[in-house]
Amino acid sequence: MNHMCSSDRTRSECLRCDIRKAVLFAELTPDDIARMFLPVSQVVAEVGDSLFEEGDCGGAIYTIREGVVKLVQYQPDGGQRIVRLLGAGSTIGLEALVDQPYEHHAIALQDVRACRIPVEEVHRLCVETPRLYRQLMRRWHDSIRLADEWLTNMSTGSARTRLARLFLYLTQDGRHQRCGLFRREDLGAMLGISTETASRMVADFKRTGTIRQLRRNMYECDVNGLRAIASDGP
């Protein structure tokens, strides 16, 4: 994983960021950004790289600019459970703001570009810029809400129903018809099913035309068909 840390460059990139309205600093003015003291690192992570690990002392929070990160908890038997997927605009590692160690392993599921924001800088800006504090509280609320939704949607119903819900999640609830998929091992860890079951369900969706493979791990989705399956229940 690479870090790029020039503070002048960081301020300039914050102002030009093409998803600035969706990320943590959305409500900061150019003057607010000019007052940023500690450098905000630009992080580039390849698939499989860790942004942070469970139990690490949290010295920073991260805003994802591009790509997808999985939050993972490892089981005593060595198995993994993916407890959430987060994409562009999401903020992770918020527990660091209350001096807590990270609660998950954060691993790049796709190539990721992110901003690493030191906790002390966030605290300072919250004092000087109440707008940032309000934004942080919204992010924390969103994090709790998304965790509840993920638990409900990916842990209940049949394997077929859960897979349909995952495809809808990846298409942003049908706003896009195309989405990328991941390794079958990751699918199993997301949905609480075996790798073999995940492979069989994907093959079944392809056979029935619910999804159509465009290239490796890229699919076009029948959104209405997925919604019908997702609402089937057990």
TrEMBL record:
Keywords: DNA-binding, Transcription, Transcription regulation. It comes from Magnetospirillum aberrantis SpK. It holds the Pfam family HTH_Crp_2. It comes from the Bacteria. InterPro entries: cNMP-bd_dom, cNMP-bd_dom_sf, Env_Response_Regulators, HTH_CRP, RmlC-like_jellyroll, WH-like_DNA-bd_sf, WH_DNA-bd_sf. CDD domains: CAP_ED. SMART domains: cNMP. This is Crp/Fnr family transcriptional regulator. The keyword Phosphoprotein does not apply. Residues 24-143 form the Cyclic nucleotide-binding domain. One of its GO terms (molecular function) is DNA binding. The keyword Lyase does not apply. One of its GO terms (cellular component) is cytosol. Residues 157-227 form the HTH crp-type domain.
